[in-house]
Amino acid sequence: MHFHKNGLLAIAVLLAPLAHGAADNLNARRLNDADKEPQNWLSHGRTYSEQRFSPLTQINQGNVGKLGLAWTHKLDVDRGVEATPIVVDGVMYTTGAFSMVYALDAASGKLLWKFDPQVPRYVAGRGCCDVVNRGVAVWEGKVYVGAFDGRLIALNAKTGKQLWSVDTRTDPDRSYTITGAPRVVKGKVLIGNGGAEFGVRGYVSAYDASTGKLAWRFFTVPGDPALPAENAAMEMARKTWFGDEYYKQGGGGTVWDSMAYDPELNQLYIGVGNASYWNIKTRSAGKGDNLFVSSIVALNPDTGEYIWHYQTTPGDSWDFTATQTITLAELPINGKPTKVLMQAPKNGFFYVLDRSNGKLLSAEKFAPVNWASQIDLATGRPVLTGEADYPNADGYKLVVPGFLGAHSWHPMSFSPKSGLVYIPAQETAAAYKASSDTSRSINPAIVNLGVIPADLPEDGKAAKPILDSYKGKLLAWDPLKQKAAWTVNYPGVFNGGTLATAGDLVFQGTADGRVTAYAADSGKLLWESPANTGVMAGPISYSVNGEQYVTFMAGWGGVFPLLLGPFAKNSTKVQPEARILTYKLGGTAKLPPAKLAPQAPPLPPALIFEDEVRIQSGRDLFNAANCSGCHGLNAISGGIVPDLRYLAPKTHEQFNLIVKGLRSPKGMPSFHNVLSDEQITLIHNYLIKRAHDLQAELKNK
């Protein structure tokens, strides 16, 4: 399961992320020596190793209870917030929804400048998982951001003025998006794309940091089988795919989040996402490993040349991405210090690899799993149980974990001090049966996975056992013993990323609207404070003038509350509100009151027609990839976009026009070429029925 190709080792070169007002120190700063600047948070994971560990100790187990709010800054759009801020010499650079960039004084929260890339709001429907952005990179006086519509943009770090912009999409007609944070390695800006479910071909691109000129591009899945492969890696990958349906769809394999870099080995590590379609029988004739989907791939950052790969889920049919945090560390393996790479991907196994060559060292379950019994250390391959083999089943198969994964994108952290990894883990499941429908494979408003999800009952009592089965936890994992050291349980999933510090603390935000600190050695809760919204992003710590701060990017959103509204409402009791929350010892700032939940809906109109067959047809159309991806299964919104059971009378009057594009400039995608007038009427009737259901539910409370 791992391959290696000898490559030239390169001497680590000077890397210079410019701070605001630090031009005279330009060539002295090196990202690979970020530990020499513990007061800063210079790159996405603080260092190239992506450990998300702060060496600062002013805030520790003895005094963390005295943390108070130092300052807060309201972001412009109340959608999902997933950014990791970059802090350089007292200036914080971060992002909000629709890829908006903010530069603030890190001690006071004063806004220095703001940049809006003017992402067209109608493209919101062309991404699976909200209009989120995971942050910027800073380098030699420039701030780099990937815009949701596929642009990579360079800004002046002092003024926020745009310096250059490039379109990273290889096919503008396909739904490529960018939600991930760029990285800068050896003068090149690295960025991947999202959009696998919408029919795209994955790749990672490297651009000259000064000019924006494309330096190299590495594709993660093969292209047109009628054309020569781009390189030897694609020639190898092509042997693992079958048929041509994957090419028509795109293949997936998007590099939408995790990267790490080892300057000594001169190896760049990228995490590759799921295949498209999910169903391997639909995309690849039911066979093949389908390289390099659901894989960790090592590349030469100078050329983009393939070095080695390890595939966590060969022939993935379950959306088991390997885009989760890639963490580099040195661990004593068999008594010998070993350069390792660690990952806890969606599939539920925690992997430890030798990062010099991709050899699997160990892998164990960190969450409930039924699709595989174990990972064979000799071959590196999972031992499949058959319990999740829906592509070859007649009916539904329950898959554990489900598509939300045992660990989603929320970043994990590693403490070299405790030797533990802190994972925002979760227990999830999903039931699927195969679908061979390929009729809407690349429509930008449609997700087509080759699977049919199981139905969620509308009746609250019938749905409750299913809703309650989704559980979240903060998991402290020992990567040497491959077992849990301690666990903190949460009422729901999609809790925030983690930060470990030398003060023996672990910080995490929660989906139910809190920010917390735990003892890194025991998991004891030492501090918590209300956030007034769900917190998903990974926190950071930095210092200015000798005073240590902890910042949480707060803002509820993402695929969980958008698609799984009933589940989100079951576990979270907060409304979306996007804010930067920064704390220090003795802080006295006040958090504004939380936003109120929607009140009783207006009285809905009478049903257009009452027969159960048509109501069920409307429900099927709503839930089957047309509306539920944003407005929630069974029209129960997770609170990010309007709950369609609360439609005002005027909206009911304009319903047909809205679905056909009337509100496209505000982010509601047009279904003009997707749904007929009759189908729109069926959906509208279903929503009226759901509004009446809600009225009855509220009346009976």
Oligomerization: single chain
The number of domains: 2
Which architecture name of the largest domain does CATH use? 8 Propeller
**CATH domain class of the largest domain:** Mainly Beta
Structural class: alpha+beta
Overall pLDDT confidence: 91
Helical fraction = 10-25%
Looking at this structure, what is the CATH superfamily of the largest domain?
Quinoprotein alcohol dehydrogenase-like superfamily
Give the beta-strand count.
41
Distance between the ends: 56 Å
Widest sheet: strand ordering: 1-21-20-18-17
- Rg (C-alpha, Å): 24 Å
CATH topology of the largest domain: Methanol Dehydrogenase, Chain A
Main beta-sheet strand count, sense and barrel state? 5 strands, antiparallel
The dominant shape is globular
Low-confidence stretches: 2-28
Please report which band the strand proportion falls in: under 5%, 5-15%, 15-25%, 25-35%, 35-45% or over 45%: 25-35%
Number of helical regions: 11
Task: Please provide a written account of the structure.
This protein has 701 residues and is of the alpha+beta class. It folds into two domains: 2-585, Quinoprotein alcohol dehydrogenase-like superfamily (Methanol Dehydrogenase, Chain A), CATH 2.140.10.10; 612-699, Orthogonal Bundle (Cytochrome Bc1 Complex, Chain D, domain 2), CATH 1.10.760. Helices cover 13% and strands 30% of the residues. The strands form eleven sheets. Strands 1-21-20-18-17 form a five-stranded antiparallel sheet, with no helix packed on it. The protein has a five-stranded mixed sheet with strand order 2-35-36-37-38, with no helix packed on it. A four-stranded antiparallel sheet has the order 3-41-40-39, with no helix packed on it. It is globular, with a radius of gyration of 24 Å. The termini are far apart.
